[in-house]
Amino acid sequence: SFTINEKHLCLTQPLYSTSVSALRRSAPTKSLPVYMVRNFIYMTLNALKTIHSLNIVHTDVKLDNILFTNERYALESALEKYLEENPSQVNPDTQIPESQPIPSEWTYETGAFQAERMTVSLIDFGHAEWAEGTPLGEGFCPISLRPPEVLLSSGFGTAIDIWAIGCLTFELLVGRWLFLPEDGGEDWSIEEDHLAKMMELTDQRFSKSVLDRAKNREKYFDGEGNLIHIDELIPVKIEQAMSNYNIPGLSQEDIAESADFIRACLHLDHEKRPTAGELLKHSFLKKAFHC
């Protein structure tokens, strides 16, 4: 709840269950079956397609913000019974009730047929921005999901959310972050390492047009478009990065299709990334909800 012009306003929303992040972390490999991943990404992209059509950028698309709908305790009587049997716990130090997610009926072992009943919603618009104009905030997205235009200050728009979708697809399929930049101390910054890893995994270079509009260009690039402190780049195909983890059940066909999808999301020039609507037509998602 909040107050605007001396009026007390309250926002209500459906009661959700646990997050896709919690489901992923519960699996032994920290990854989920490809049929689940397709469905989750398909539903999330549909949500983004809607908000992007309204010129809204979410800016914080992550697995913690993708929640399962509450079907297990949809009836008020069922929810009341659950809360009676599982009263909220109070932190002994602060005396504040602790978070108590409503449990989901789904597990990482849920089969393809049953998985088609899973529904998720994209939540938390607390950091959302208008796509047009100057954003009010800065430092959007968790570091591992941060796109190059945020690091370079080279533009802003709905493509920020598309970059996150590519990173999350990789994370869901192999149980690891796609980008894990490291601080090189006096040798290089964590941002420069991040930019280097982007070029290595996408096999792209930052174009002159991107660097020309980048306010932070001189922090990381020389006049020739090379990174100032990192001389050698070692390209690694996304397919190879996925294969290295030997995830059970993830076939070479799945890897090829998903890698092509991820690569489409990760165009270094945000103006050339596909829209949410275009990605929904990608071959990787054509099998969504088709067990």
TrEMBL record:
Record's catalysed reaction(s): L-seryl-[protein] + ATP = O-phospho-L-seryl-[protein] + ADP + H(+); L-threonyl-[protein] + ATP = O-phospho-L-threonyl-[protein] + ADP + H(+)
Single GO BP term: spliceosomal complex assembly
GO molecular function: ATP binding; protein serine/threonine kinase activity
Domain (Protein kinase) ranges: 1-285
Domain of life of the organism encoding this protein: Eukaryota
GO CC, any one term: nucleus
Gene3D superfamilies: Phosphorylase Kinase, domain 1, Transferase(Phosphotransferase) domain 1
Any Pfam family: Pkinase
Keywords assigned by UniProt, alphabetized: ATP-binding, Kinase, Nucleotide-binding, Serine/threonine-protein kinase, Transferase
Enzyme Commission (EC) number: 2.7.11.1
Protein name in the entry: non-specific serine/threonine protein kinase
Species annotation: Panaeolus cyanescens
